[in-house]
Sequence to fold (124 residues):
Amino acid sequence: MSETHPLAVRRTAAAPVEDRRRSQRVVIRVPVTVSVVLAGKPVTFAAHTVAVNDQGAMLAAPQTMPVDTQLEITNERTRQSSACRVTRTPPESSEGFLIPVEFTTPAVGFWQISFPPKDWKPVE
Fold:
């Protein structure tokens, strides 16, 4: 019986997720300020992106937030702000909590970067 290489399985399993992605994700660290109301109190803290796309970002933050939490992020490079919501339960990592957020209204150009074309695939 032959064994399948673990990376081959991961690539095969991950392909459908990449095909469903609405826009290319770019790994980039952008400083942001998060403003949110937690337990009835306004809270503001510094965070940064781990990856961004036209629909939102993955934030690395010092605290977690429940799914569907409404928040505002400010791109510290441009001072532009946008309303967002938490889309999934944030896992904890070495950088803090990884909080997936999506813009509540389209914010094309919020990150001020050029995204690769939708059909672009990295060389393996």
